[in-house]
Write a structure and sequence with these properties.
The complex is a heterotrimer of chains A (about 250), B (about 290) and C (about 290). With about 250 residues, chain A is an alpha/beta fold. Chain A contains 10 helices and 10 strands. In chain C, about 75% of the residues lie in helices and about 0% in strands. Classes of the chains: A alpha/beta (about 250), B mainly alpha (about 290), C mainly alpha (about 290).
């Protein structure tokens, strides 16, 4: 298992947003995470990426306890993520965004940067450009990130996360705001990345995307994991049907 | 006893000054660094009025109105254009520094940089005794007036329609507009009240020391930061509490600190509160989370 | 050539102060570029000015060594200070660093060896114009190269979005602290140079007014690049000298420039040839100060 959580718990005031969740994410797979609005999905990944600190339970990543590590340490260990409300560096260019994403893989160049006329970043830029090509952003590298269309911003955020060559990529609703064609292309892309050995946790409202892209799916409701299995098993699970049909939200 | 009386007096001035500062901060998130200049303007407006033969009480009213109007103009010139383009609060703060420079210099052009004095005999100078305590009429009236103004402002914000509008605006400007609140009018009222109170504080402090000068606001500005942070930024009762806490603390500190270190008390207190409890005693939150 | 020499002799002081102020403006640039508003650099300047002046005056320490000691002491003090105050953001951070500055001022006032309120006089006039401009050149070069290195990119990322920056593996707290310490070292260097250029120093030179002035240089010139702060310092230092006959209106002009720049050219004068980019940045809602 690349990532394991054991009875992970997070409270906000009196509300238990994540309640004793056990997850086991195998390496090289796409792991879907679904659930109605407010089920605790985003809180769960904020715990995994270190943005929230757990009130109870433990997180293991690559055979090490990472429960109390801050986000930048987790990034260094190979966890990259995107955000539900896109968080690009809006005032930086598309290329600069990817270069920042490259941070954990680039050698510190403080002293080297002081040498006149030296440009140590050529290799990094070439790498970043290749990544942008792959995400169909090749022609936009000098645009400001904030100027991109919504779908392009989502793709740029994924490209930025991949620039760190992570072992685990967490995607928080990557298809939100994408049209069906873009969403289908994203599914193909996720399968490709998994085939290259990347592990992906996919949170998504677009159930077709999750079912089509994931090997395993876990379902959260009211902060608890109510089901886990292959997409076929999940679709047949009565508890999952209850959770989705029992709420007004069709998710 | 004399020390306590003194602490109450100076605390009242701190409070009056900090209230105007706090009002703008709580409603608009702007740290208006021109507030000390308005304080100074208040002292000199009263001086000007009294040189024309206006009695002291009326001169305070004149200072209130003149500074209030100046505050509204300040907003139109230095803040409104920034608001329209959604500039960060920092921009407004810097812009207010510019206005402050201009205002102070204009006062200096008229009155010079030195200490001034109010016309002889225009301020009450008599002293009376209550329970063996010597009080002077001037400072007692000033304390009463300051406390009355604090109460009036609290009533206004808590109980009136304008107060409700201001609170809505502070909470969420966009929602306030949707609720049909005349946002421009509410902002103008905020600045009028804030600057007016600052002006009155300046006039009263000028009376008490009888030596207004063009830089008199500077020390108050730094003290007001301490007052606001200690009480909780943007909290009106917090500002009043912080003001008296500071003035009593300063007076008390004089018994064990040399007088040069008197100001260190305020900044030491400010620093400690920021580090230990940045939201202040009555404040909400100062440190953001994810 | 003789004309040039005559010009230099006549304006030597002003030219020197242009350079010193440019260095100071760069000291605050580092933190502004990281998106943090700190107002402690006047105090760091003061700490280093007193340290280096006391070393050359009372201990006959060689000038370069004294400069270095002053700068390093400022840097050393900035480490624990930064570690404490960078839990704060926005105006709270600004106020906390300002409070620190006042504490430093009061401590200088209370320490006998500093000459207290009288200040230090008779500091050996070791600073030559070329010292100032060689320092400026080196510091500007280092800042410019850092800006385009991975460090500068990390600073820019922190300014744009701290949460996202941490997610990319950037140790946000450490980078902010680094910017703060670099700023303190630069301000300290400027303080030592200024003390030996001026022959005399006083605690009031390093107070609130100076802190604001340094900020104004950087903001008026513009924070997006390294030339901005230098330009701002040069303009706002040279202008008053050039306008000697209009000296009374100097502050008014400076205040007006400040308001106009913030309102109409929020990214500073140095971006005047870059208006399209400014407009694009505004459209995407990026911070417009830096």
């Amino acid at each position: 298992m690349l990532l394991e959580t054991a009875s992970l718990t997070k409270r906000f005031g009196g509300v238990v947003a994540v309640n004793g969740v056990d997850l086991a994410v195998p390496e090289g797979q796409v792991f879907g995470l679904i659930g109605p609005n407010g089920a605790g999905k985003t809180t769960l990944i904020n715990l995994i990426s270190g943005h929230f600190r757990a009130d109870g339970g433990a997180i293991r990543f690559a055979n090490a306890d990472v429960t109390r590590l801050p986000p930048h340490r987790l990034a260094k260990r190979g966890i990259a993520r995107t955000f539900q409300a896109i968080r690009l560096f809006k005032g930086l260019t598309v290329l600069e965004n990817v270069l920042v994403g490259r941070y954990v893989r680039s050698r510190p160049d403080v002293l080297a940067s002081l040498v006149p006329f030296r440009d140590g970043g050529a290799a990094e830029r070439a790498m970043a450009r290749a990544l942008l090509q792959r995400f169909g952003l090749g022609g936009r590298e000098r645009a400001l990130a904030g100027e991109l269309s919504y779908g392009d911003q989502r793709r740029l955020e994924i490209a930025r996360a991949l620039a760190a060559e992570p072992r685990l990529l967490i995607l928080d609703e990557p298809a939100a705001g994408m049209n069906p064609t873009e969403s289908a292309a994203l599914r193909v892309m996720l399968r490709e990345l998994a085939a290259e050995g990347l592990t992906i946790i996919l949170i998504e409202h677009d159930v077709r995307l999750v079912m089509g892209a994931s090997e395993r799916v876990a379902v959260l409701n009211f902060g608890r994991k109510i089901a886990e299995g292959t997409p076929t098993e999940i679709q047949a699970d009565p508890a999952v049907r209850e959770a989705y049909l029992g709420t007004a939200d069709d998710g | 006893m004399d020390q306590i009386y003194n602490a109450i007096f100076i605390g009242s001035i701190y409070a009056l000054f900090a209230l105007g500062f706090t009002l703008v901060f709580s409603v608009l998130d702007i740290l208006n660094l021109a507030h000390p200049a308005l304080f100074t303007l208040g002292a000199f407006t009263a001086l000007f009025a009294m040189q024309q033969g206006v009695p002291a009480g009326l001169a305070v009213l004149v200072a209130f109105v003149v500074c209030g109007v100046a505050g509204v103009i300040l907003d139109r010139v230095a803040f409104a254009p920034l608001r329209r383009r959604n500039a960060p609060p920092l921009s407004a703060m810097i812009s207010s520094i510019g206005v402050s420079l201009i205002l102070i210099r204009l006062i200096q052009l008229k009155y010079g940089p030195d200490l001034q004095a109010y016309p002889a005999g225009s301020l009450p100078a008599d002293v009376f005794t209550v329970a063996g305590l010597q009080l002077d009429t001037l400072r007692t009236v000033i304390i009463a007036l300051a406390v009355g103004l604090m109460a009036a402002l609290t009533f206004l914000v808590r109980r009136t329609r304008l107060g409700r509008e201001l609170r809505a605006l502070a909470e969420n400007p966009r929602a306030a507009r949707l609720l049909g609140i005349d946002v421009d009018r509410a902002i103008a009222a905020t600045f009028f009240l804030s600057a007016g109170l600052g002006g009155v504080a300046g006039a009263l402090y000028g009376f008490a020391t009888n030596s207004p000068f063009s830089q008199m606001g500077l020390n108050f500005e730094l003290k007001a930061f301490a007052v606001m942070v200690v009480g909780g930024m943007g909290s009106i009762p917090g500002a009043v509490l912080g003001a008296y806490l500071l003035s009593f603390g300063e007076v008390a500190s004089l018994t064990f600190l040399p007088s040069e270190l008197r100001d260190a008390f305020a900044f030491g207190l400010l620093f400690v509160v920021l580090v230990v409890r940045p939201s202040g005693i009555l404040g909400q939150r100062a440190v953001d989370r994810v | 050539m003789d004309d040039l020499r005559a010009f230099f002799d006549a304006y030597q002081t002003t030219i020197g102060f242009i350079g010193i102020n440019a260095i100071l403006a760069l000291s605050v640039w580092v933190t502004l570029y990281t998106g943090q508003l700190t107002l402690g650099n006047a105090a760091f300047m003061g700490i280093a000015a007193y340290t280096s002046a006391l070393l050359t005056l009372k201990a006959q320490v060689p000038f370069p060594l004294a400069l270095l000691c002053g700068s390093l002491l400022a840097g050393a003090i900035s480490v624990p200070l930064g570690a404490t105050v960078f839990r704060l953001r926005g105006v709270y951070l600004a106020i906390a660093t300002l409070a620190f500055g006042e504490v430093v001022r009061v401590v200088i006032l209370a320490t006998p060896i500093t000459g207290r309120g009288q200040g230090l006089v008779g500091i050996p006039p070791k600073t030559e114009l070329w010292h100032i401009f060689a320092s400026l050149l080196v510091i500007a070069y280092v800042c410019a190269r850092l800006r385009i290195s991975s460090v500068g990119r990390a600073w820019a990322a922190i300014r744009e979005d701290e949460v996202a920056a941490a997610s990319q593996g950037i140790p946000v707290h450490r980078y902010k602290l680094a910017a703060f310490v670099i700023g303190a070292l630069i301000a300290g260097w400027a303080g030592g140079i200024a003390a030996h250029f001026n022959f005399a120093i006083q605690p009031d030179e390093y107070g609130f007014a100076r802190a604001v002035q340094i900020l104004v240089f950087a903001i008026v010139g513009g924070v997006p690049n390294v030339l901005g702060p230098i330009l701002g310092a040069a303009l706002l230092t040279a202008l008053p000298a050039a306008l000697q006959p209009l000296q009374e209106f100097r502050d008014i002009l400076q205040g007006a420039i400040l308001v106009l720049v913030i309102v109409y050219l929020p990214r500073g004068l140095s971006t005047v040839f870059d208006l399209r980019r400014s407009a694009r940045l505004r459209r995407v809602g990026a911070q417009d100060v830096a």
